[in-house]
Predict the 3D structure of the following.
Amino acid sequence: MMRRKNDNKRYFTRMGTRKKVHAFVRVKPTDDFAHEMIKYGDDNKSIDIHIKKDLQKGVVNNKQTDWSFKLDGVLHNASQDLVYETVAKDVVAQALDGYNGTIMCYGQTGAGKTYTMTGTTENYKHRGILPRALQQGETNRIIASHTMNKNSSRSHCIFTIYVEAHSRTLSDEKYITSKINLVDLAGSERLKKSGSEGRVLKEATYINKSLSFLEQAIIALGDQKRDHIPFRQCKLTHALKDSLGGNCNMVLLTNIYGEASQLEETLSSLRFASRMKLVTTEPAINEKYDAERMVKNLEKELALLKQELAIHDSLANRTLVNYDPMDEIQIAEINSQVRRYLEGTLDEIDIINLRQIQEVFNQFRVVLSQQEQEVELTLRRKYTLIDKNDFAAISAVQKAGLMDVDGHLVGEPDGQGFGLGVTPFSAKPGKKAKSKKMFKEQLRPSTPPPKPVAFEDFKNERGSEINRIFKENKSILNERRKRASETTQRINAIKREMDVTKEALNFQKSLREKQGEYENKGLMIIDEEEFLLILKLKDLKKQYRTEYQDLRDLKAEIQYCQHLVDQCRHRLLMEFDIWYNESFFIPEDIQVSLKPGSSIRPGMVPISRIMSLGEDDQDKFSQLQQTELPEGPDSFSFYNAKVKTEQKHNYLKTMMGFQQAHRK
Ligand code: ADP
Ligand code: MG
C-alpha cells in the first residue's frame, strides 16, 4: 500500500479522455542482430521487417516479404532505467493519482519479459519495473512489502500494487484507491516451434489459449459498442478483470529477439502488439470518501460553531440559550404556545433560535391539522356531507328536487344549503372508504343511500308517528290559511261594496242639497232611497268588522299552527338525522353511548337550513294568496319576519341545549 499526498488538480480531471493502449517493443540485445531484416524507423516508433527471398520457405506468408509495425516506441539496447522511464513511470505516477494501471510483458520465452518486469536481483542497475515502481511509490511514503517469486516461463505472473492516497490536508475527506498490475505473461511461442510434448504441450496449449482470451478481452473492452466482456473465459482475464482496458492506463511491452532465427516468433509478437495498439481505454479516478475523517471534521466544525454561538450570545446579552435538539417536553411547550397564540391568549412567540423557530412552524402544522379534523368532525356530527365528486349521490339529491344544480336546497334564496354538496377539508373518497370498513357490511349498504331517499324510508318507519302529527298540523294550518284567504276575499268584496254605497249616498246627499233641505224641529228629513243606502252601509261596516275580527283570529291561529308545523318539521328532521347517522355512519360500539339517557345526540340539522323541506304546492299557494291581504296591523311581511325571528330563536335554543349536552 502506498500513501501519498493528494494535489487538488486531479479532481478536475476525473474522467480522462479515451486513450489507446500504449505498445512498446523491447529488443533483447544480441551480437547477432539481423540488421538486414529488422529496421527501426527514424522516430523510433516503428519496426520494419524484411525477409529475404531464399529464407522465405516455411515462413508464415509465402508471398509477403515486408511488414511495417507502428508502435509507441522501440527500445533497442535500452537500459532498465530508460525502459522504466519510457514504459512505466507515467503509469505509476497516474496510479498514485487514482488511476488503475496495467503493464504487461508479452513475448516468446527467453525474450526478456521477466528481466524487464523484475530484473536481476544481483545488480541494482538491472532491477526491473516492479522494484522501481515500488521505489517510485516510496518517495511518496510507501507502506509495502513484496516477495519476488521466481516465475516459470510457462505461467503468467501478476504483481498487484494497491495504492490508497489520502490528502495531507485533514479537511479533505476524499481519498483515492488504485491498483497497478504488473503482468509477466507466459511465453507466447507457438507450439510448433517449442516442440513441446505431453504435459508441457498441454500447458503450452493452455497458455496460448489464455493469451488469445486476453487479446479477446482487451479488444472487447476497446469496443464501445460491446457490453459483454469475456473475462470469465480464463483465470488470467478474470484476475485482471478490473485492470484491463476500461478505466485503466494500459501498456503492453512486447519483448522480441533480434536474431534472424527467431524472426517468425518476432513477427507473431509484433502482430499482437499492433493489434493491442488499436484498443482504447478510458482511465478514470477511483475516488472514495473517508467516513471517519468526515465525521471527525464535522464534529470539529460543530464544536467550533457552538463556541461561536456562545460568543455571539454573550455579546448579545443572551444567556443560557440551548442549541441541542429539543426533547418531548420542550416540543409540548411549543405546541401549547402555538395553541395559545391561535386562541389569542398569547400575543407573540419569542424567537430563541433556528431550531425553535422550525419547531414552532412544525407545531403550527400539527395544530392546524388537528383543528381541521375537529372542524370536520363537528360538521359531520351536524350535517351529512356529500362528496362533491360523488356524482351519483349528488344527482340523486337533485332528482329528489332537494338541491338545485349549484348544490343549494330548493327554496333557499340565500344559498345556504343543507350541508349537502360541500365536503370540507380532508374528506376524500379514500378516507370515507376507510371509515366504512368499521361497519358491519352485511347489515348496512356499502354506500349510504342519498338523504332524500332515506328520508322517505324514515317517514314510513321510525318517523311515522311524528310525520303523521306533522301532516295533521300542516293540514290544519292549510285549512286555516284557506279560510283566511276566503275571509280576505270577502273583506275585499265588502270593502268594494262599501265604497260603492258611500258613493251612491254622496250622490243622494248632493241631490238633496240641490233640491233644498227640509227641516222639522231640528230633525233632518231624508228620502227613503238615501235612508236605505245609509242602512246598507251600516250593515256593510258591521259585516266588515266581523269579518276583520275573524281574519285576525284566523291569523293568530295560523301563526300558532305555523309554529307547531315548524316544530314538528324540526323534530322530524332531527329524528331523521339521528336515525340516518345511526343507520349508516356510527359504528355500533359508539351507538351504545348514544342510547337514550346519554348526552350525545348526533345528526342535528339546523332548522333555518331546511325550512323548505316537505313544503308542498298547497303551502306555497296559500302563502302567495296571503300577499294579497289588505293593509292591516298584521301584514304579511310583518308576519313573516315574526315567524322567522321565532324560528331563529328556537334554533338557537336547541343548538345551545345541544352544545351544553355535548360539553357534559
Ligand atoms: P523471459 O522471461 O521472457 O522468458 P528472461 O527475462 O528470463 O526471459 O530472459 C532470459 C535471459 O536473458 C535472462 O538471463 C535475462 O537476464 C537475459 N536478458 C533478457 N533481456 C535482457 C536484456 N535486455 N539485457 C540483458 N540481459 C537480458
Ligand atoms: Mg520469464
Remarks:
- The pocket of adenosine-5'-diphosphate (ligand 1) is lined by residues 28-29, 107, 109-115, 120, 153, 187, 255 (CB under 6 Å).
